[in-house]
Amino acid sequence: MKIKKAKDFQMIEDSAAKPRELRTQSDNSDILNTEGCLLYVIDDDLPTLELYQKVLAMNAREMIVKTFTTPLKALEEMEEMEPDLIICDVMMPEMNGKDFVKHITNIEKYRSIPVILITAGRYDMAFKRECLDRGAIDFLTKPVDLDDLTCRIRSLLRFRLLARNLARTNHEIQEMQKIIMEQEKLKTLNTIIVTLNHEINNPLTSLIGNMELYLADPPTEGLDEIQEAYEAALKIRDIVMKITKVRLSDKVTYLNDVEMFDLNKVGVDES
């Protein structure tokens, strides 16, 4: 068999598979649907790469497969498009599969990508454990049962999709909790405002009424003090009325991140 050079190797993409960007969250009938999932296959042996592509094109037509002859080329491509799963040979020049797994698991955004390592050599259990400890999710020895490999790929992808869906749901729950907490704060604030209005306004109204009666027939002494107290009581009543009408848009932040309502803004926009 004539071995093609890496530069002559052309990736065969399955035109029937939908790109992952076209997948929508409205497809809730099957949140674990692997359609459009992107697979990276890394192996320095071109015939092996072609074999993987042919098998996956037949058995997993819903997925998109990209092949690479070195992990370094795969890392360059990952900057543009993050794969959903990676199949990687162990023994390769420049960077072997074990070091590749260790490298991507040290990068936060790639840490959750499942990697299946495949090797033609015979390795003891200690070596396999080391690969798994470095971040590989599975370890297979050639010759690989390709039907079994396809099943493993689908299974790992479903776990990844499930984890992604759970993370999204958890984020939505956290956002909803924030909204509920804000609503509870507003409800509590409204209760406080109503209470203040009732407990302060009632005696204040009585005080203002008595002062008005007193000022209608003022005494010869202390008139200025009584007039000043009366004006202060009117100002307090005005503040209480404004507090009952505050909105979130009236809130301002002062020094040391202290938040208060600007009562001068209350009711300004009202027609």
TrEMBL record:
SMART domains: REC
Gene Ontology CC annotation, any one: protein-DNA complex
Domain Response regulatory: start-end pairs: 38-157
A single GO molecular function term of this UniProt record: transcription cis-regulatory region binding
Any one GO BP annotation for this protein: regulation of DNA-templated transcription
PANTHER family (alphabetical): REGULATOR OF RPOS, TWO-COMPONENT RESPONSE REGULATOR ORR33
Superkingdom as given in the UniProt entry: Bacteria
Modified residues (4-aspartylphosphate): 89
Pfam family, any one: Response_reg
Keyword field contains Phosphoprotein: yes
Keyword annotations of the record: DNA-binding, Phosphoprotein, Transcription, Transcription regulation, Two-component regulatory system
Name listed for the protein in its UniProt record: Response regulatory domain-containing protein
InterPro entries for this protein: CheY-like_superfamily (IPR011006), HisK_dim/P_sf (IPR036097), Sig_transdc_resp-reg_receiver (IPR001789), WalR-like (IPR039420)
